[in-house]
Amino acid sequence: MTLFAREVTEQVRVREELRHRAYHDPLTDLPNRAGFHEAVARGLVLLDLDDFKHVNEVCGHSVGDEVLRLGGDEFALLLPGKRGLAEAGPLRRRC
């Protein structure tokens, strides 16, 4: 029996660093356009809330203001991590 082994730690580190550079701004380290598009492709939920005034009345205006407002009563949720449709379904029903 012959066994071959090769250390790949450095290759993995370099690959991860290149991926990070491809998707993050070098000055701010925030996601760049490509990183944003990748995140949107993984999980974006658009909501159109009926009677959003009720949300402000029940939760307060500060809560309503913390949500990304696209216009009127439309909102966007960018799901963190690698979520797919199976995980987004229960979240959509809760909203």
Q: Tell me the radius of gyration.
A: 20 Å
Instruction: Output mean pLDDT.
Output: 78
Q: How many discrete domains? A: 2
| SSE ordering | HHEHHEEH
Poorly predicted runs of 5 or more residues: none
Q: Bin the helical content.
A: 40-55%
What is the number of helical segments per DSSP (H or I, 4+ residues)? Answer: 5
Strand order in space, largest sheet: 1-3-2
Number of strands: 3
Going by helix content, strand content and strand pairing, the class is alpha+beta
Q: Profile the largest sheet.
A: 3 strands, antiparallel
* Beta-strand percent range: 5-15%
Task: Note the gap between the termini.
Answer: 58 Å
The rough form would be described as elongated
Q: Which short descriptors sum up this protein?
A:
Rev_trsase/Diguanyl_cyclase, Diguanylate cyclase, 52% helix, Nucleotide_cyclase, GGDEF_dom, alpha+beta, 2 domains, 3 strands
Structure characterization notes:
The chain is of the alpha+beta class. It folds into 2 domains: about 5-40, no CATH class; about 45-95, no CATH class. It is about 50% helix and about 15% strand. The chain is built from 5 helices and 3 strands, in the order ααβααββα. It has helices at about 10-25, 35-40, 50-60, 60-65, 85-95, and strands at about 45-50, 70, 75-80. A 3-stranded antiparallel sheet has the order 1-3-2. Strand 2 and strand 3 form a beta hairpin. It is elongated. The termini are far apart. About 0% of the residues are buried. The model has no long low-confidence stretch (mean pLDDT about 80).
